[in-house]
């Protein structure tokens, strides 16, 4: 650039001089016209040459201007590295035929002696001892790098993927398709550090004769290469695993601010080695686990494990069985249990046994082993095209356990074995009803010692009880009565459907409290004052009978507020262009006990009555949210979690620059109202692989906050349509953080009327926005 700028300046000065000078003063010496043959190398001659395994020659074109006579030229060729000289043969002359303007100079080399993947630089010079054969307007020297190109070959799926790196495979080790052909191996790459999500069925090849592998269309659309070093191991989970080396390479992605992003294994990036940063091949699971760092000159975006898993043929071998009622023979004495078996399309047959009683885990394992060993008499079912079949079993009244496992290619598939318990009543026997009851109470009535911790205006105790020891499952659902009524009437749910979709099942320990002591007692917290709540419970017993019970109770009125901080509704607005529209929310500041020492904020960027812990600091005039939420205390800060789904997309919080910083509001010291925002925060949208953009965005010192009307309608206003959300794809996103949250038993909430499509039970990875700076 400096040279270019200097030349422009010189031209400008020269032009100025010409304008004021007399033409007689101008001296011009024309260039000397070249004479002779004028031989040269084309400026389009290649500077690199990829030598495949079956190549042993490199042909270079030599050009000339004067073509009248035949011409023989002296040429010198040499390797840059002396140790490579024996690999190449350089002719000492090149010959032009009369009338020809081009001649070929052919270099021979011994490709079989070259190391695959290694480069060999060479030079070629045209000798012009008389000084009249070459030309100053063309190059008389040429530098070329000969690359001993790797031969990338397909790999094929194995019956046992753990043998992937074995050197003694036979034809019997390979998976075959229906035509008896080997199946080309593909891989699924799981991104963690720079991007998130899975790329499935990626092309996967191996450099012939090496343990170097290549994944195509990886990351930013490029090839990703790694090497398995069978001479080096690391210990992972008590197992010795071969080291996976990831050479330094371009990811295919160029960051708008930091430039090209590269990837290398973390052991080399940090210089701390593979014991500190294990990067390895997990043979047992057919999975390469590269520990990588995505970096630019300023720092790195992500550092840690990712996963490249060998794809396998997935067979449909699932089986199931269900007690489907009783069949009575014509004699009106003999009764049979009707058992409906269902099975996957790839199940060729299945064997099963029916054992009396409910078996323990140890007994189940013994039965399964007996089937595998052939030491127990089994019943065999030959599947038909309907993928289900009902069989009859003559049984006496009582409990039974079925153990079954499928076969494929005349071999048992123990990974798909199942067990099933059922009760058969037989003739002249009745099935006991499911005996479960549910009741809501004030905490002060049922647990008075906890009433200060769980006040009656924000908490309710509940009891689920039974006089039977045969309760098998209990699923509960707690929500305000208004929400229940909406889903039961406007949405057309039955109570059982609602509990099945949104309820929480008892754990084994919780269930044991009912079946051993008859009673389970706990508390729902974080409830609204003066609000009716309904508890719905669906339970089943060991006999297959189900029952649905519910109870309704209203929380008490909250105590009068005596604090300094002004509570109630606030509206925050920001006109930033990031979202393509105005961002606006109305949130509510609440007191948990009538003072400003125990406050919370509800509906901040989540209008499902989501409630955050907040701290009012009178000395600093701030209200701070640290990411803790009511009902999710065990998860710590849940900034950056996906909280719910909206039209099939995940939505959640992004707080501050890193996504996990506190959100801080300023308080006017004279009015004691929240008046400004001191840290950024946003409501983001994400699909299964990345953040798509922001529904709402609020900037520190930019957003305006005003006290608004106190009604029960304080909700987040998603004023920015989803179509205007900034689009970010997996291919240009930044580093990722994975967290999942489940529904907390002490606060199980339904989505509000018409707000959400469905609460998601699994949450995908989302992206963080910070670059970790370092001195590398």
Q: Which helices and strands occur, and which strands form pairs?
A:
Elements: H1 2-20, E1 39-41, E2 48-51, E3 57-64, E4 71-79, E5 88-89, E6 93-96, E7 102-109, E8 119-126, E9 141-148, E10 152-154, E11 186-191, E12 197-207, E13 212-218, E14 222-236, E15 239-245, E16 249-255, E17 259-265, H2 266-270, E18 280-282, E19 287-289, E20 291-296, E21 299-305, E22 307-310, E23 319-328, E24 335-343, E25 349-356, H3 361-373, E26 379-381, E27 388-394, E28 398-408, E29 411-412, E30 418-424, E31 437-441, H4 443-446, E32 460-465, E33 471-480, H5 481-490, H6 495-502, E34 504-505, H7 508-517, E35 519-524, E36 532-541, E37 546-554, E38 568-574, E39 583-591, E40 599-602, E41 611-617, E42 622-625, E43 642-646, E44 649-655, E45 663-667, E46 674-677, E47 681-686, E48 691-698, E49 704-707, E50 716-717, E51 736-737, E52 766-767, E53 772-773
Parallel strand pairs: 2-9
Antiparallel strand pairs: 1-3, 3-7, 4-6, 4-8, 5-7, 8-9, 10-12, 11-12, 11-22, 12-13, 13-14, 14-15, 16-17, 17-20, 18-19, 19-22, 20-21, 21-53, 23-24, 24-27, 25-26, 25-28, 28-29, 28-30, 31-32, 32-35, 33-34, 33-36, 36-37, 38-39, 38-49, 39-40, 39-50, 40-41, 41-42, 42-45, 43-44, 44-47, 45-46, 47-48, ...
């Amino acid at each position: 650039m400096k040279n270019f700028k200097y030349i422009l300046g010189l031209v400008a000065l020269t032009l100025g001089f010409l304008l004021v000078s007399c033409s007689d003063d101008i001296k011009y010496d024309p260039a000397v016209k070249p004479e002779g043959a004028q031989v040269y190398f084309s400026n389009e001659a290649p500077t690199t040459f990829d030598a495949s395994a079956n190549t042993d020659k490199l042909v270079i074109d030599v050009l000339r201007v004067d073509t009248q006579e035949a011409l023989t030229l002296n040429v010198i060729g040499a390797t840059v590295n002396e140790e490579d000289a024996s690999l190449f043969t350089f002719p000492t002359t090149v010959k032009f035929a009369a009338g020809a303007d081009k001649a070929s100079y052919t270099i021979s080399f011994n490709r079989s002696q070259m190391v695959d993947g290694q480069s060999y630089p060479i030079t070629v010079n045209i000798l012009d001892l008389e000084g009249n054969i070459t030309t100053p307007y063309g190059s008389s020297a040429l530098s070329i790098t000969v690359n001993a190109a790797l031969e990338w070959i397909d790999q094929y799926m194995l019956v046992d993927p753990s043998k992937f790196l074995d050197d003694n495979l036979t034809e019997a080790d390979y998976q075959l398709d229906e035509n008896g052909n080997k199946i080309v191996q593909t891989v699924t790459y799981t991104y963690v550090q720079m991007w998130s999500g899975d790329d499935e069925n990626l092309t996967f090849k191996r450099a012939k004769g090496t343990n170097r592998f290549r994944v195509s269309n990886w990351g930013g659309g490029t090839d990703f290469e790694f090497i398995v070093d069978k001479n080096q191991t690391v210990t992972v989970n008590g197992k010795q695993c071969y080291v996976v080396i990831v050479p330094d390479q371009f990811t295919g992605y160029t960051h708008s601010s930091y430039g090209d992003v590269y990837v290398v294994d973390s052991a080399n990036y940090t210089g701390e080695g593979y014991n500190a940063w294990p990067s390895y091949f997990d043979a047992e699971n057919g999975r390469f686990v590269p520990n990588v760092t995505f970096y630019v000159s300023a720092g790195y975006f992500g550092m840690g494990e990712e996963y490249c898993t060998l794809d396998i043929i997935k067979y449909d071998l699932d089986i199931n069985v269900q007690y489907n009622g009783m069949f009575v023979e014509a004699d009106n004495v003999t009764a049979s249990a009707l058992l409906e078996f269902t099975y996957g399309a790839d199940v060729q047959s299945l064997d099963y046994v029916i054992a009396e009683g409910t078996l323990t885990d140890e007994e189940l394992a013994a039965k399964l082993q007996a089937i595998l060993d052939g030491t127990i008499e089994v019943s065999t079912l030959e599947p038909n095209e309907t993928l289900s079949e009902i069989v009859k079993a003559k049984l006496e009244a009582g409990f039974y356990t079925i153990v079954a496992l499928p076969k494929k290619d005349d071999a048992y598939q123990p990974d798909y074995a199942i067990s099933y318990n059922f009760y058969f009543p037989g003739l002249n026997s009745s099935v006991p009803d499911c005996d479960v009851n549910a009741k809501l109470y004030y905490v002060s009535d049922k647990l008075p010692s906890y009433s200060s911790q769980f006040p009656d205006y924000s908490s309710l105790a509940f009891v689920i009880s039974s006089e039977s020891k045969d309760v098998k499952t209990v699923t509960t659902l707690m929500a305000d009565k208004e929400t229940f009524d909406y889903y039961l009437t406007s949405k057309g749910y039955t109570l059982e459907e609602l509990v099945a979709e949104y309820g929480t099942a008892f754990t084994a320990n919780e269930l044991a409290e009912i079946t051993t002591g008859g009673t389970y007692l706990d508390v729902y917290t974080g409830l609204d004052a003066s609000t009716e709540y309904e508890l719905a419970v669906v339970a089943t017993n060991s006999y297959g009978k189900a029952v649905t019970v519910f109870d309704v109770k209203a929380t008490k009125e909250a105590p009068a507020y005596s604090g300094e901080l002004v509570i109630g509704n606030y509206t925050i607005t920001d006109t930033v262009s990031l979202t393509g529209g105005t961002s606006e929310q109305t949130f509510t500041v609440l007191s948990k006990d009538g003072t400003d020492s125990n406050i919370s904020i509800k509906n901040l960027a989540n209008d499902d009555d989501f409630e955050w812990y907040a701290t009012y600091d009178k000395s600093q005039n701030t209200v701070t949210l640290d990411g803790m939420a009511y009902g999710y205390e065990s998860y710590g800060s849940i900034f950056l979690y996906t909280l719910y789904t909206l039209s099939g997309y995940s939505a959640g919080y992004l707080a501050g620059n890193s996504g996990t910083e506190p959100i801080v509001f300023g308080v006017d010291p004279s009015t004691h109202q929240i008046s400004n925002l001191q840290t950024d925060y946003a409501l983001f949208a994400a699909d299964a692989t990345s953040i798509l953009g922001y529904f709402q965005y609020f900037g520190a010192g930019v957003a305006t906050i005003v006290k608004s009307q106190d009604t029960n309608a304080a909700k987040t206003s998603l004023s920015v349509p989803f179509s205007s959300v900034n689009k970010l794809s997996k291919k240009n996103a930044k580093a990722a953080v994975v967290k999942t949250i489940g529904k907390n038993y002490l606060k199980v909430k339904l989505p509000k009327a018409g707000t959400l499509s469905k609460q998601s039970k699994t949450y995908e990875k989302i992206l963080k926005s910070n670059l970790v700076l370092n001195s590398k």
